Amino acid sequence: MRNTVMQTPDVNAATKAQGGMIDFRRATVERTEILPAESNVMTASTIRIERTVEGTGYVYGIVLNVAAPAAGNAVATVTFTEDAPWSALDTVVYRDVNGELLNLTGYDLFVANLAQKQYAFRFWDASALFNTIAGGIATSGTFNFWIRVPIALNRRSLSGLVGNQDRSQKYSIRTDQAGSGAVYLTVPTTLPTVAINKQYENYAVPLAVNPDGLRQERAPRDFGLLHYLTSITSAESPTASSSINHFLRRIGLSIRFIAFIFRAGTGNFPRSVAQTTANQPTSLRFKIGDDTLFNEPYNYRRALMFERYGFDWPDGVLLYDAMHDLVPGAGSEVGDDYYQTQGLVNSQLQVTYPAGFTSGGTLRILTDDLAFVAPVAG
C-alpha cells in the first residue's frame, strides 16, 4: 500500500480539518501510471484481450488510447461503420473476483463517457487527438481515439473509488478488439495494426498523520459505494404503428442515468435513420414503478440533453440523467435526483413508434447505477 508523503506542512490544514481530522478528499493526491499496451493486427474476428490491472492506491479510471495507423491501402475506397471508430472495441469489462463493475460495447462506452460529463466543454472526439481517415488514399482506414473506463463518479467527490491493493483480488480489464466488419463498411486493402494504450488513473492512500500532526482519513467516507455501467439490447423490439413497453432489467439500485440508443432496421447508418422525422417516436413515457416521471415527445428530450451538455448528441440517442442537481448542466452531482428503484418490481420506457419506423430495429439500454457494499474489515 503506497502512501503519499507531504514534503511540507499543509498551509490550509488548520482551517480545513473537521473535528481534528483532515477529510480524504483533501488528504489524497491524484496520480497516473502507464499500464502495458496491446498490439494486434486487425482480423475479421474478435480478439479477446484480458489483463490484470497492476497498480496501487484507489482506482479512479483507466484511459484507453486506441490507435490504428493504416499505410497500405491501394485500391479500396474505405468507409467506416456508423459506430466507428468506437466499435473497434468489441467488449470492455472491468471486474474482480466478486463480479463486474462495467460491461459495455465500445460505442456504449463512448455514450457513457458523454453522459458522465467529466470534461470542460466537449469530449475527446472534438479534439485533434481523434481522427478517422476514409477514402481511397494510402492511409485510408486509419483511426485514433481516446476513451475512459470510468470507475469513480467524478473528481469533486471521488465517490465510487475502488482499492487495488489486495494481491489476491486484483481487478482485471478486458478490451476485446473487434473484427474488421464492426469498424469498416469497406475495408482497406491491408488491415491496420491496432494498439491499445492504457493510462491508470488513481488516488494515493494518505498518511495516517500529516506533517502538522493532524490525523487524516485514509479511505473515502463512502468507501464501498460501487459504480456499475452495463448495457443490454431490449427484449422488446421496436414495432411500427405500435406502443411498446421496453422494460428495464437493471432495477433495485440508485440510477444516475439511463441512455436509450435507437437503431432502425435498414441502411448502413441505422441510428441516423432512427433520428429522421419519419422514424422518431411520437411519444415517450418513462416510468419508475407505477409512477410516470416523464411524458414527452422525442425532440423535447433532445432539447434537454443539449441544455444540460451544450452539444447535440449523436443520432438516435436519448438520455435520462439524474445528474443536474448541483450546477447548471449535468455532472459532479450531489445525488438528490437519483432514481431510487430499490424494492420496485419493474420500470419501463413506453415508446409509441410511427408508421414509418422500419422493421428489424433495436433499442439498446445503457444503465449507470450505484450500490453500497460495506467493506470487509480486517
Write the layout of secondary structure elements.
Elements: E1 3-4, H1 13-16, E2 21-22, H2 24-27, E3 30-41, E4 50-52, E5 58-68, E6 79-80, E7 89-96, E8 99-104, H3 106-116, E9 131-132, E10 143-150, E11 162-163, E12 172-177, H4 180-183, E13 184-186, E14 193-203, E15 205-206, E16 215-216, E17 225-233, E18 243-247, E19 254-263, H5 270-275, E20 283-288, E21 291-296, H6 298-309, E22 317-321, E23 339-340, E24 347-352, E25 362-372
Parallel strand pairs: 1-15, 2-16, 8-17
Antiparallel strand pairs: 3-14, 4-12, 5-10, 5-11, 5-14, 6-13, 7-8, 7-12, 9-10, 17-25, 18-24, 19-22, 19-23, 19-25, 20-21, 20-24
Number of strands: 25
Reported for the largest beta sheet, the result is: 9 strands, mixed
Beta-strand portion reads 35-45%
The mean pLDDT is 92
- Integer-rounded radius of gyration: 22 Å
Q: Number of helical runs?
A: 6
Helix share, percent = 10-25%
Low-confidence stretches: 4-9
Shape: globular
Distance between the termini: 15 Å
SS-based class: mainly beta
